[in-house]
C-alpha cells in the first residue's frame, strides 16, 4: 500500500474495476447512450435507416395526429387503470384470504401464482382459445340454452381491450397477492391483538389500520404494476395481434411495427420517447416519495 | 416469560365446520377453479381430435384421448417454409437460455461482489444508473442495440441475443447479489484478507460456496425470464434461430391453412412446460426469485 502514490490510483482495487466493466459499459453505453441516441434521432426524419436530417417536432406532431397511436394510448389508459385497480383489489383480497390461518395455504398460493410462471405468449394464446366465440365460453353458454348469449370480446373492437385485461389479470394477480401477503405478514401481531381487545371488527381493522400501515408495500406494488403496464406487448401480439383492425393496439407494439415492419424509424423513435416520458412521470414521483420521504423521517 | 404461560395461547380453536370456514374454503375453491381452468382447457384440448373439438365444448374431457396433436406440434407443425415443428424452437431456446443464464449470472455475481465488498470511487453512481435503467422501456434501447450488434457482427445470431439477455438481466441480478454479499459478516471478509486471499480468491473460495441459495434464486429467475422472452427473440434472431415463444406465436397465429386448435394447444402447453416444471419443483425459492425480480416487470 505504501508504494501506491498518486499516479497508480487508477490501478488500485483494479480487480473490482475489471469486474465492473460490464456494468459500466451497460450503464453508460446502453442505458444512457442508447436512450440519448433514440431521443436524439426522434427529431430526425429517419426512414429505413437512421439519418441526421432534423425536422424538429415533426415526428411528434405526426404521432399525435395518427389514429393508431391515439387508439394505443387510449387502450393503454383503459388497460392500465383497470389493471391497477383490479390487481390491487384482487391481490389484496387473495392475500387476506390466505392470511386467515388456513390449511393448505401453500397449495392455494401455488395455484394462484402458477400463471405468473407462464409467458405472456402462452397466456395470450390460451385466452384467445377460451374466448373464441365459436368454441369457447360463448359457445358453451349457448349450448346450455341461452342461444342469444354474446361474449366475444376478441372480435368486438369496442371491448377487445377488456379481453386482453382478463388474460393479463389472470397472469399477474398472483404476484401481487404474494407481495401483499408478505406485507400482511410483516405487520406486528400485537396490532391485531390490540384491535381485538378494542372490539374493532376485522374488516375495519384491515381498512383503517392494516392498509395504512402497508403503505410502503402498496407503493412498491404500484410501481411494479405500472412499469409492467407500459411494457405490455407480447400479450397483445399473441392474443389479438393488435386486432380486430387496430382496436387493441398498444404503444409498445406501435413502436415495434414502425421500427421493424413499416420502416419508419423516426416514428418509432418518437413513440418510444413518449413511452420513456410516461415512465419518467411514474417513476420520478415514486423515487421522490421513497427517497425524499426517508430523509424527512 | 414463556414459562409462565404454559396454558394454551391465542384465540380459542374454532370448529372446523363453522360457517366462516365453509365460506372461506368455498371462496378459495371457486377462485382456484378459475385460476386452474386455462391449464385444464389446454390439457383437454390438446388431447382431443379435431372432430371432437368441433362438436363438443372446450371444458368437457376428451372422449377419445389422442396424443397425435402433441406429436404434430413437436415434430410437424409449420412456420413459413419450415415444417419440422416446435422442436426447432425448443432447441433454439435451450441454446439461447443456457449460455445467457450462465453469462448473466456470472457477470452479475462478480459485479455485485465488487460493489458490496470492494467499493471504488464512482461505483455507486454506475450502480444507480443501472437500477434506474431497469425502468427504461426496452423499446427506447432496442434500436441502438441493433446498431451495436451489427457493428460487432453478431446481429441475428444466438450470441447477439445472449449478450442482450446479459445486459437486461444485469440490473436485477446485480441488485440481488449486491444485497446478498452486503449481508456477509465483514469479519469473515477481513479475516480472509489478512490470510492473504485476493479479490478472486475470496470470491471463488468463500463467497460462492456460502451463497448457493442466492445462485439458485438467480437461476430460477433467469431461466424462466429468458425462456419466456418474446420481444428480444423476435428482434435479435432470424427465423431459423427463433426461440420457442416466437415460433409458437408464428405457428398458432399463422393465417394460412385450417386452424388445428388441438395442435395449437399442445404447442402452447409444450412451451409453457419448462417454466411450469421449474415453478412446481422450486416452490418457495421461486417466490423469492419473483419478489426480487418483480421490478423487471
TrEMBL record, chain A:
Family matches, as PROSITE patterns: ABC_TM1
Pfam families attached to this UniProt entry: BPD_transp_1 (PF00528)
SUPFAM superfamilies: MetI-like
UniProt entry tagged with the keyword Transmembrane helix: yes
Keywords, sorted A to Z: Cell membrane, Membrane, Transmembrane, Transmembrane helix, Transport
Domain ABC transmembrane type-1 residues, every copy: 73-288
GO biological process: transmembrane transport
Predominant place of localization: membrane
GO cellular component, one term: plasma membrane
Entry keyword annotation includes Cell wall biogenesis/degradation: no
Location of this chain's protein in the cell: Cell membrane
Spans through the membrane: 21-43, 76-98, 110-130, 159-184, 205-230, 269-289
Membrane topology, as annotated: Multi-pass membrane protein
Domain of life: Bacteria
Family: Belongs to the binding-protein-dependent transport system permease family.
Protein's name in the database: Sugar ABC transporter permease
Native organism taxonomy: Bacteria, Pseudomonadati, Pseudomonadota, Alphaproteobacteria, Rhodobacterales
Amino acid at each position: 500500500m505504501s508504494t501506491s502514490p498518486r499516479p497508480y490510483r487508477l490501478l488500485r482495487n483494479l480487480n473490482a474495476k475489471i469486474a465492473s466493466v460490464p456494468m459500466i459499459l451497460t450503464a453508460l453505453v446502453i442505458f444512457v447512450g442508447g436512450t440519448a441516441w433514440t431521443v436524439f434521432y426522434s427529431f430526425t426524419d429517419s426512414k429505413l435507416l437512421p439519418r441526421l436530417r432534423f425536422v424538429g417536432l415533426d415526428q411528434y406532431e405526426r404521432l399525435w395526429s395518427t389514429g393508431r397511436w391515439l387508439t394505443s394510448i387510449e387502450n393503454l389508459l383503459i388497460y392500465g387503470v383497470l389493471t391497477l385497480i383490479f390487481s390491487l383489489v384482487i391481490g389484496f383480497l387473495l392475500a387476506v384470504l390466505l392470511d386467515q390461518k388456513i390449511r393448505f395455504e401453500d397449495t392455494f398460493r401455488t395455484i394462484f401464482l402458477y400463471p405468473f410462471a407462464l409467458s405472456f405468449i402462452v397466456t395470450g394464446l390460451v385466452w384467445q382459445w377460451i374466448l373464441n366465440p365459436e368454441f369457447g365460453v360463448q359457445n358453451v353458454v349457448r349450448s346450455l340454452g341461452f342461444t342469444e348469449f354474446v361474449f366475444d370480446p376478441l372480435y368486438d373492437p369496442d371491448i377487445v381491450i377488456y379481453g386482453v385485461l382478463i388474460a393479463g389479470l389472470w397472469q399477474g394477480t398472483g404476484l401481487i397477492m404474494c407481495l401483499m401477503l408478505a406485507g400482511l405478514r410483516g405487520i406486528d401481531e400485537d396490532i391485531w391483538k390490540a384491535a381485538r381487545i378494542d372490539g374493532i371488527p376485522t374488516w375495519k381493522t384491515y381498512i383503517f389500520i392494516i392498509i395504512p400501515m402497508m403503505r410502503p408495500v402498496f407503493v412498491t406494488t404500484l410501481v411494479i404494476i405500472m412499469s409492467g403496464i407500459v411494457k405490455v406487448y407480447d400479450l397483445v401480439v399473441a392474443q389479438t395481434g393488435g386486432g380486430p383492425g387496430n382496436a387493441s393496439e398498444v404503444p409498445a407494439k406501435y413502436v415495434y411495427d414502425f421500427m421493424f415492419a413499416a420502416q419508419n424509424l423516426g416514428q418509432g423513435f418518437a413513440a418510444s420517447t413518449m413511452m420513456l416520458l410516461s415512465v419518467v412521470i411514474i417513476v420520478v414521483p415514486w423515487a421522490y416519495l421513497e427517497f425524499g420521504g426517508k430523509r424527512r423521517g | 416469560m414463556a414459562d409462565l404461560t404454559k396454558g394454551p395461547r391465542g384465540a380459542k380453536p374454532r370448529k372446523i365446520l363453522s360457517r366462516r370456514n365453509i365460506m372461506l374454503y368455498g371462496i378459495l375453491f371457486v377462485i382456484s377453479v378459475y385460476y386452474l381452468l386455462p391449464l385444464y382447457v389446454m390439457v383437454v384440448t390438446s388431447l382431443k381430435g379435431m372432430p371432437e373439438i368441433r362438436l363438443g365444448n372446450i371444458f368437457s374431457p376428451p372422449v377419445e384421448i389422442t396424443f397425435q396433436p402433441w406429436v404434430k406440434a413437436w415434430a410437424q407443425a409449420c412456420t413459413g417454409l419450415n415444417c419440422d415443428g416446435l422442436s426447432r424452437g425448443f432447441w433454439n431456446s435451450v441454446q439461447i437460455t443456457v449460455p445467457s443464464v450462465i453469462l448473466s449470472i456470472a457477470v452479475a455475481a462478480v459485479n455485485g461482489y465488487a460493489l458490496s465488498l470492494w467499493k471504488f470511487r464512482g461505483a455507486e453512481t454506475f450502480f444507480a444508473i443501472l437500477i434506474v435503467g431497469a425502468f427504461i422501456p426496452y423499446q427506447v434501447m432496442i434500436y441502438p442495440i441493433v446498431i451495436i450488434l451489427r457493428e460487432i457482427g453478431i446481429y441475428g445470431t444466438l450470441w447477439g441475443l445472449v449478450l442482450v439477455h446479459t445486459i437486461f438481466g444485469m440490473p436485477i441480478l446485480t441488485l440481488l447479489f449486491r444485497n446478498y454479499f452486503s449481508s456477509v459478516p465483514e469479519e469473515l471478509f477481513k479475516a480472509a484478507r489478512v490470510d492473504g486471499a485476493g479479490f478472486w480468491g475470496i470470491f471463488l473460495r468463500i463467497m460462492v460456496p456460502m451463497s448457493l441459495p442466492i445462485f439458485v434464486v438467480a437461476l430460477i429467475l433467469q431461466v424462466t425470464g429468458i425462456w419466456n422472452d418474446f420481444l428480444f427473440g423476435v428482434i435479435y434472431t432470424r427465423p431459423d434461430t427463433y426461440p420457442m415463444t416466437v415460433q409458437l406465436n408464428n405457428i398458432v397465429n399463422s393465417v394460412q391453412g385450417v386452424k388445428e386448435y388441438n395442435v395449437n394447444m399442445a404447442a402452447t402447453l409444450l412451451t409453457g412446460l419448462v417454466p411450469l416444471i421449474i415453478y412446481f419443483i422450486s416452490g418457495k425459492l421461486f417466490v423469492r426469485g419473483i419478489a426480487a425480480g418483480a421490478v423487471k416487470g
